[in-house]
User: Fold these one by one.
Assistant:
Number 1:
Amino acid sequence: MNQNPKNFSELVGLIIGIIEPVISLLFAVALLVIVWKLIDAWIINPGDTKKLEEGRQYAIWGIIGLVIMSTIWAIVRLIQGSLF
């Protein structure tokens, strides 16, 4: 599959087409790590205060990370939609 872009808009579309699955994979991995740490801290080891604090920290930083990733991706989509 040889797709040679003819103009800048097609080049950007090709690059975004390559990057989109990677971004989706990063979102999925980040969400899985957060869920696993919460399960590990609050279901598997509910009495261990160190694990509970670790789970709480992963939850906080994971949510912050997902919000930042979502915001950046929304800005990229907004720029892509307005320019191309």
Number 2:
Amino acid sequence: MQHSMPRTLFEKIWDDHVVDELGNGLCLIHIDRHFLHELSGSAALMNLDKAARKVRNRELTFATLDHVLETTPGRGMATRIPGGNDFLREMTARVVAHEIRFFDLDDPRQGIVHVIAPELGVVLPGMTFICGDSHTCTVGAVGAFAWGVGSSDSEHALATQVVIASRPKTMRVNLEGALRDGVTAKDVILALIGRYGVDGGSGYAVEFAGSVVDDMQMSGRFTLCNMAVEFGGRTGLIAPDETTFAYLKAGEFSPKGGAWDAAVSYWRMLPSDPNAVYDLELTLDCSTLDPQVTWGITPEQVGGLRDPVPVHARRTTSVGRASYARAIEYSGVTPNMPVLGLPIDGAFIGSCTNSRLDDLRAAAAILKGRKVASGVKAICTPGSTSVKRAAEAEGIDLIFVAAGFEWRESGCSLCASGSAGGESFAFGGRVIASTNRNFEDRMGTSVKAHLASPQTVAASAVLGRIADVRELEAAG
């Protein structure tokens, strides 16, 4: 189909996947790839079986174990989450019965779904991609339209390879300026959420662009798109470029030979056209940012490491004031007090936000030759078994262990299971983590979680308090 009007990256992908317009703003959308994990996939497959239906396109469907799986070494098919073993058993049995490609416990490709999907080339530029998890938008960093769905939509896609979806509005977030020393993609996205709120992107497909994005490696781009959902976005996207192509080329499921060349030719046409019109554009000057850390119970309750806890709620609504008051109470902080220097009991590096090889390398550079402070429980869970293997080949695991971190197997770990009674930090502790959500009880009952970059987490673990990595760098 010829299009006379300039189009955005998102509009190009959407237009290519509309099977039918259903009215009332709804469309039938073809799904290129569908990924299952044990929490969402087992329910969708169970319902499919109850209806005596088959998986329409097994070659477009993939599955892994990640959410409730134990991450301690020698874990086996184990979980500490009540009922978790049922999810693992159901998922395994039904995936095998439907002959879906399955990266199970002993598969060297197992890992967090949002890490392994792009790592393996399962998700590619221009695709539609769904998974039963809100952080599916992570993989939009390769230039795909990726979003989380419920079990009913997942079941529908399994049976028909289409879903019913409403078209979101379009937003471009221009990230400009040179980043200061110690400032990372995690700090950029936290600063954006802090400025515009957890609903700043509500109703939008959010495209990240600008010089900061252009200079980022894929690990940073995944971090940005991962937290698009914490910004309220339907999804996050980044236009594919040479960095994207270099990352994807080695993927097991990426096109090969002539098919690769043809795919790249198509992918080069995906970036938004000049003069494409977005429903909303925002610009963030990143040159003035410091490393960020959350102080409250939502990602928007955040500031620079050297900023004090604000004396008023960012939102002046009754809901905003109530959230601020609850955050002060739960987090054990007071208005105008410094966050920098708060003693911590735990540190966690992992999750689909910051558990890739570049993240572990950056943290290891801080930890090398240093020790975790006494009384701090420090844990690292690589995002995939492939990441773990690559890190061990570089000796990164030895640096973490020598510093006093637990070096775990791949999985969602504390980010997903702390609130469900699985792996968790001790009751009421204060921890700093590279994850994406600092909700109440997210990492254990009454645990106060502060979100930050892997570098800030590593520096804080060493000093036993929320710390600026530049303190350690200055000390040598």
